[in-house]
């Protein structure tokens, strides 16, 4: 299988409107609202129960995911992104005494955060990175996690209906994806693809959960949003192994060594 492309993106992320995906989740088409809400709820359900955990959200954009996290379960929350104006928007809408947002110039700045975390999340960011960036990112995550900490990521599953959905979004959405998505992963080949990009990353990060989501439930939102959200919640992420959902969800554990 071919490795993901390594050419840096030409896409200018500054052109995305402020708070765009947060706005989509709250006021967009019902299917898109359910899509984003389900994505974040599934990620939250796959994190440790707490209380008293710290979490770093890499690529937090407008801060929507952290804005959903309770302060008692996660009393230390940090979101970082490379787009300063989106970080300013996130801070103005979601900052709290236990929740901070910080603009960073690039992935190398993760080495300068000066703390470690119980959880690191990467929600629909992996596909926006080149192979070199993914390799660097996995190295940083291994250092940023406390021993036994969890790294949770989601990314589109290109062995599902996602390629068709992406083409539809490229035609119908205000924000296009053809220039944004550099690395395309599949559920069957996910670990193999990561090993090809970053040999040895499993010395620090042990895969303990791989699943998919977003098979049919987001589309039920066109009929009933409450029903769509109930369908998404009725199956625990750890019990679902169907390989054809549109999003891959993977959780890694930082080894004790």
Describe the fold and architecture.
- The chain contains nine helices and seven strands; from the N terminus they run H-H-E-H-E-H-E-E-H-E-H-H-E-H-H-E.
- The chain has 257 residues and is of the alpha/beta class.
- The protein has a seven-stranded mixed sheet with strand order 3-2-1-4-5-7-6.
- The two termini are 31 Å apart.
Give a quick summary of the entry.
With 257 residues, this protein is α/β, with parallel strands linked by helices. The chain contains nine helices and seven strands, in the order ααβαβαββαβααβααβ.
Q: Kindly report the average pLDDT value.
A: 88
Q: Low-confidence spans: pLDDT under 50, at least 5 residues?
A: 1-9
Biggest sheet features: 7 strands, mixed
Strand order of the largest sheet: 3-2-1-4-5-7-6
Please indicate the percent range of residues in DSSP E strands (runs of 2 or more): 15-25%
Overall geometry comes to globular
Number of strands: 7
Helix content: 25-40%
**Could you tell me the radius of gyration in angstroms?**
17 Å
Number of helices: 9
- State the end-to-end distance: 31 Å
Helix vs. strand class? alpha/beta
Order of helices and strands: HHEHEHEEHEHHEHHE
Write the topology of this structure:
Layout: H1 20-27, H2 30-45, E1 54-58, H3 64-67, E2 76-81, H4 84-94, E3 99-103, E4 117-123, H5 131-144, E5 145-156, H6 162-172, H7 190-197, E6 205-213, H8 217-220, H9 225-233, E7 247-254
Parallel strand pairs: 1-2, 1-4, 2-3, 4-5
Antiparallel strand pairs: 5-7, 6-7
Helix pairs in contact: 1-2, 2-9
Keywords:
33% helix; alpha/beta; globular
